[in-house]
Amino acid sequence: MKILLSIIISCFLITGYSSMSIAGNKRMVEENVEELDELNKKAVKQIPDLPKKGQVDMKTDVTYEKEEPVFNLRYKKITSEKEGKINFGTNQVKKTTKKSLSEETNDKND
Amino acid sequence: MTRTIKLVCAVFLIIPLLAASAWAGNKRIMSVRAAKVMAERALVESVYGLKVRATEEVQDMVAANFIGKTESKTSARISGIKFEEVLYDAEKDIAKATATVSLDSIENIDGKVMDLKNQVFRRVAFATSTPSQAGPLKALRAAELDAYKQLVKRVVGFTLESQTTVENYMLKSDLVKTRVLATTYLARVTDFGWTDTGDAYVKMTLNVKEVSEILGEEISGEDELIEVEGAGAQVDDFKSAQTQ
User: Fold this and answer.
1) Which residue has the higher pLDDT, B74 or A2?
2) Chain A residues inside the 8 Å CB shell of B157
């Protein structure tokens, strides 16, 4: 009987603790981070001619239409990386070259 | 001698009782007064409007690297505010005030005159003078500010700045920043409360059609009714996760 009672009490304590552990701002922050990641990827995908490998720096205005984000790109800089062989006389050196392309559109001083 | 002892005992018994009752009364008055002020602020934010400044930043999409900040500011004098209902929970020392105002017209935070046609605006607010009871109320205010931020982001828009790595046509967000600074007015709170876990929520709507009619200006590019839900927590488990 004592064992049964202690099991019931333990179950109540565990349930209570787990429900308390759900509360807090951590879950809210995690959801916010996920939303930001999704939004950023949507914005970057709007940029034409994305390289296979590289870095994209950008600044965009975001507004909403029918609950969907609409992007107005103000600045972009694409640095693409390509792998190839560079010949310096006799020795062939494999090196990565970087090409940078930046474009600014109506960037306001804010 | 016995009489003197009785008198001393009586005085010793009466003084603490009087002191306790006086303290309880003061606490009640303070909480009720604070709730009324909070309700007045809520009405000013709803009718006159408020300025919202919010920034978010996250690096490598790691939640521990997230920094989010929302600030609000407003200052106005509205006359004719009435209190429909004032409740006080003596056990928890929490006061609840419901304030209403009906105005013909008002100059809002942007200096625009709004023809309100004596519409009734109603807001509810809570307050306590006991710090240990403030948790749920702070969470509710956090949820309210979150809702304002979301509303501003939806109505006015915001700036997104980022650094992204492309690897085999796959995107990886390295740094994402958002920024918004705007004013909002005529937002209505449709629902608020606390979940079973103690987190607060505030549901807000903005009727764009109604606002454009009141302002006499066309507001384009948005839905007719914007609905948002703000969230606020009373437990800061994010900070403890950051330090781990």
Assistant:
1) B74
2) 61-64
